[in-house]
């Protein structure tokens, strides 16, 4: 039985991360730094001796570009890849495209903080973290996890909030715990799972 390997990577820095804008389902590409972060993620995975059987990503450019750059470093271009909006970033609705400082001026710092950091309060026209989990988790359980448990070495390149949904389950975090979990751009997290889908080991390749 081959190892049950699952690697999660948040996309590299995007143009809108740099500009401090709410991004959500908007589709900016990576910055120069984001490209470097993605390539570095690939080099780190290669240094670990990892190769993959399958990959998953969102329908957004920044995640797909990150995955492509990682696979390039691994010499695995052409790896079978599934793209699904279930792995998209949280939809920030009316906040999308706004500068975070401008949003605070418009709605007040406390209100914007609630939208950003509460578990189940969505911004106007958008999704809460709970809503994001509600679409990302079934996809993980039905589409990604069975392959991992069958020995398919799996790489997922997605977004801070959609990956939080997977991490919440993997690490058995509470809603409060997952809200506090920060994910750096372009940093792979390597999980090896037990047969019952619990985590046997975890390695964060930060630094």
Task: Describe what this molecule looks like in 3D.
The protein has 207 residues and is an alpha/beta fold. The chain has one domain: Phosphoglycerate mutase-like (Rossmann fold, 3-Layer(aba) Sandwich), CATH 3.40.50.1240. Helix content is 43%, strand content 14%. It has helices spanning 15-18, 32-47, 61-74, 100-107, 109-117, 129-149, 160-170, 175-179; strands at 5-10, 54-57, 81-83, 154-158, 188-193, 199-204. A six-stranded mixed β-sheet has the order 3-2-4-1-5-6, sandwiched between helices.
Task: Describe the secondary-structure layout.
Elements (H helix, E strand, L loop, with lengths): L4 E6 L4 H4 L13 H16 L6 E4 L3 H14 L6 E3 L16 H8 L1 H9 L11 H21 L4 E5 L1 H11 L4 H5 L8 E6 L5 E6 L3
Parallel strand pairs: 1-4, 2-3, 2-4
Antiparallel strand pairs: 1-5, 5-6
Helix pairs in contact: 2-3, 4-5, 6-7
Instruction: Tell me the span between the first and last alpha carbons.
Output: 32 Å
What strand order characterises the main sheet?
Answer: 3-2-4-1-5-6
The amount of helix comes to 40-55%
Going by helix content, strand content and strand pairing, the class is alpha/beta
CATH topology: Rossmann fold
Task: Give the strand content.
Answer: 5-15%
Our count of domains comes out at 1
Mean pLDDT: 95
Number of discrete helical segments: 8
Per CATH, which architecture?
A: 3-Layer(aba) Sandwich
Unreliable stretches (pLDDT < 50, length at least 5) are none
**For this structure, what is the CATH homologous superfamily?**
Phosphoglycerate mutase-like
Organism: Bradyrhizobium stylosanthis
Keywords: Gluconeogenesis, Glycolysis, Isomerase
Protein name: 2,3-bisphosphoglycerate-dependent phosphoglycerate mutase
Catalytic activity: (2R)-2-phosphoglycerate = (2R)-3-phosphoglycerate
